[in-house]
Amino acid sequence: MTTERERRFPGPRRGQLIFALAFVALAALLLALIGEQTAWVKKTKFFAQPRFWPAVALGGMVLMGGLHLYRMPWRRVTRYDGWEARRWGQALEYVLWFMGYVLLVPIVGYLPVTLVFVPLLTWRMGYRSPRMLWISACFAIAVVLVFKGLLSVRIPGALLYEYLPGSLRSFAILYL
Amino acid sequence: MDLILSAIEILMRWDVALALLAGSVGGVLIGAIPGVGPAVAIAILLPATFSMDPIVGLTVLLGIYGSSMYGGAIPAILINTPGTAVNALTTYDGYPMTARGEPRRALSLAYSASFFGGVFSVICLILFAPVLAKVAPMFGSREIFLAALLGLILVVVAHRGQALIAGALACFGIFLNTIGMEPVKYTQRYTFGQDFLGGGINLIVVVLGLFAISQAFVLLTDEDEKIHLTRLRGGMFQGLRELSRHPRVASVSAGFGVLMGMIPGVGEFTAQFMSYTYAQKTSKRPQDFGRGSSEGLIAAETANNAVPAAAMVPLLALGIPGEALTAMMLSVFYVHNVVPGPGLFQNDMDFVVALYLALLILNVLVLIFLLFATRSLIQVVKIPNRFLGVCILTLSFVGVYSLRNSATDCVMAAAFGLVGYILKRLSLPAVPIILGMVLGGIMEVKLRAAMARVKTPFDFIDRPVAFILFSIIILVLALHIIRAFRDRKELKEAEWQIKTSSMSFGGLMWRRKNSFLKDRGKQVRARHAKLLRRLTDLF
User: Fold this and answer.
1) A2–B contact, CB cutoff 8 A
2) What is the distance in angstroms between the Cα of B439 and the nearest Cα belonging to chain A?
């Protein structure tokens, strides 16, 4: 049966304990490394010490994170926490998609990679109709044209563009 | 008058006009799509605005900030899903109106109320600007430090029931800001010998990760929702007439919006809550609230639209952002070497007024756009969630990669995206991290400067503004502690009401033991024994 304390806890139960434990453990570890990772400068006031603010921040993390953990209505990790952790792991797939996209753009080029990435991820998400794939391709072209062509955001030309003939090469480096 | 004329001169440029149009239309569109929101859009567009003039870049971002709430009312009213988080209260009275066949009336009323809130706050602030210009120079290093500290404390205590973890996350933000080369003594802090950490962690990378990439992950791992739209019938101008019948609710709600917007860390939710409660308490028909009350809708929409202009006050006057969106805007100032703070009000007052006028024009543009284009605009609500996730992930790349063309930044943004995803799954706030990063940096610099000029700790608060700010901090903390104790007492009472004595055998034995030992227990037992003796004597 759910207790009053559990009922009043804002947010879902699943995953809370794992997150709080990991947060406090990380904060405590970083605090333990403070002597090694920050310096104490002689003839400098206490508030101007380079160590002061990391100590305040990490002290606050350990103290408030620890109190949050202490006041949590649960003391044991259940199978629901495990399922939640697995759900967090599922998001890693999209981190890989994102990193793949990031690494390919400087080699193959912004327009070609975006033109493949968006429809491919749309396909992966379960949209198989030609209409959705066309929409995704149009979206990819629009993004490249607006950001690189129109707003001139800083995305460098790709390595493959170097092999394009003369004027096309400079056009591709500038706008695609 | 001269001030307003020179402000108009700043705005009379084709690129500013274009920025106003793009910001207003884009903001409405973004607001109307549930799952995107202004924070995601501003995070993505932020690096693109770095190459623009400060006034152009800020106009685009302000446009998105100011108009997204107009758009957010559309799905809140039509499909009971708020477009942006602050439109949650709009669903209370907006959706019941749609359910009884009055979607046009609800939309028109929401637009009119939003317009009134937006214009009211801008006019208030233009009139208030000369006062601010006089007050702002009273803020030196110690006052700005105390104001930043107050902002951070308010953000933390505003998360009722989650104040401890919000505080821990704010400290995490402060810690992130300290990573890298320390600028005064040139020592490394938490770089672990890695070159990429030497320059510190970029705020934009964290913002993009926590707001945009995490939202993409949420949408990508979720299911698509089936959406049924109601057909719109009737005129769109009836809301303006209806609004004029409730001038008191509209003005008080707008007033709450302006006041709450100016206080760092408080914002839309408190303003809406206060104005909604006020409207309900003073209404002749309080029973209609939550069932399609026009006054309820006016209170919610007026209050949330009055906030954006007011939220610019602490940012422009003191350089202290009160919430995530203004924290993002602060980076636009820094990129262009424009330092918001007392100096801006003293030297570039026309720039400040130009920003407010831009907001005023923006409200007019948005209202005109919505009155004529709502029928077509509601189609954006139908965009499937997971496809939206694909779009946000693609756009996030532009935001992160265009900063420094660094794959390391992208790895960090993806890592913060994962952190943001976990926080969203657990309903924990990400805003304290961003404010911790921004305000932590301000506090470090200002405390160092202030402490160099004081001899005793009391000197820190010996100026009037510093003393007032310090007193407010103490008051806020005291009120929070009292509230925490009251919550704890309520919890104990609720637990006692549910709990029955027989549930715990150990507890029963403990109570019996106490009863035996206490004088009162002895007296009761003696009385019972006496009664029992009398009873047995009878036989």
Assistant:
1) no
2) 12
Query: What ranges do the domains of chain A cover?
Result: 4-77, 91-175
The answer on B58 and B131 residing in a single domain is yes
Position B502 pLDDT exceeds 70: no
Asked whether residue B449 falls in the same domain as residue B517, the answer is: no
Mean pLDDT score across all residues of chain B? 85
| DSSP label at residue B84 | S
Sign of the alpha-carbon torsion through B71, B227, A97, B421: positive
What is the domain extent for residue B315? 2-182+198-453
Average pLDDT over residues B510-521: 76
| Residues of B whose CB is below 8 A from A91 | 217, 220-221, 417-418, 421
Share of chain B above pLDDT 90, in %: 22
- Whether the pLDDT of residue B130 is over 70: the answer is yes
Distance, in Å, from the CA atom of B37 to the CA atom of B86, rounded to the nearest integer, reads 10
User: Which residues does chain A have within 8 Å of residue B190's beta carbon, measured at their own beta carbons?
Assistant: 30, 33, 37-38, 54
**How far, in Å, CA of A130 to CA of A8, rounded?**
48
Residue B421 lies inside a defined structural domain of this protein: yes
Query: Number of folded domains in chain B?
Result: 2
Q: B524 and B449, same structural domain? A: no
Q: Give yes or no: residues B210 and B72 share one domain.
A: yes
**Among candidate residues B211, B478, B390, B174, the one with its CA nearest the CA of residue A133:** B390
- Give the minimum alpha-carbon distance from A165 to chain B in angstroms, rounded to a whole number: 25
Q: Is the ipTM of this complex over 0.90?
A: yes
Which chain A residues are closer than 8 Å to B444 by Cβ? Answer: 53
The larger pLDDT score, comparing residue B375 to residue B260, is at B260
Instruction: Tell whether B497 is covered by a domain.
Output: no
Of B175, B187, B494, Cβ closest to residue A50: B187
